[in-house]
Amino acid sequence: MQGLLDLVLGTVLPRVATIALLIAAGVALANLLVGLGAVRAIAGLSTPLTRPANLPEEVGTAILTTTASTTAGYGMLAEFRESGALDDRATLVAVTINTFFGFAQHVFTFYAPVLIPILGPEVGLLYVGARAAVALAITCTGVLAGALLLDERDAAAAVPSAVEADGGADDRPRVDLLRDALASALAKTRDILPRLAVIYTAVALLTARYDLAAVAGAADPLADLVGLPAAAVPVIAVFTLDTTNGAIVLAPLVEDGLFTPRTAAATMLVGGIVSFTVSTFKRSIPFQYGIWGAEFGSKVVLVNTALKVFWIAVAVALLLAWP
């Protein structure tokens, strides 16, 4: 009993308290930056992408909007398609280019304020950097596809002027923005803190009493196939169900030396492939079908899935092969 108390007070409590404070500060700052219109700085990158992809310049407004709201950005593209300004091929190119800007939204709302504090700066930045590289690679694939498959007639297509961009700065007083940012930070911290404490305690007890690598030894063939430690298998299983919980499980294992920063990031990327496959059926298909209809929505899901799995696999291979 005394050993359990020492473990909780000496190991779990400091970790949980530190992470909770960082999450609260990060979420507050992220919400404040979004409210002040910081997303426009990233979305401004959209203009030089639409031109070489042979897309109308106005499509850049949909990309800008995606940085603030994926649903709104997709809705704008759907309106472009329905108006005849974009055909199916041009719409698929635009959806693909959208990928990096949709990812950028999550940097502000999840990766920076939540995931990096849980994983620590080295692992967190390596993983988020890998995810950013994957998203950018998909966007560049879209630009290349537009350059090869579309022509100047697509770029000259008229886009309805009624479609306006969303996602600018919030014009409320800054004190209101700050109050809302703090409220959001407290709500997010209250939501995560119980899971954080329970999972950290469970992982601390597990690693203190058992050799996790030996326990997961039965899954060695799967781990060897990818080139990850056997202990990656249970982490991937948790990550498939919930990204935050997966990170919470992984963080103490990195500190205990079971994972290097590169194998930890690769494990989360592999978990992302499995998780993405699951979420495709739970969220992506209903969302895409709702935006585009079943026929074209299926094409969007197929393209998104194929590109994400391919580029994540490339990122995992590079992480594990890097000397």
Automatic annotation (TrEMBL):
InterPro entries: MJ0871-like. The keyword 4Fe-4S does not apply. Keywords: Membrane, Transmembrane, Transmembrane helix. The chain crosses the membrane at residues 12-39, 90-112, 124-150, 192-210, 230-251, 263-281, 301-322. This is Nucleoside recognition protein. It comes from Halomarina halobia.
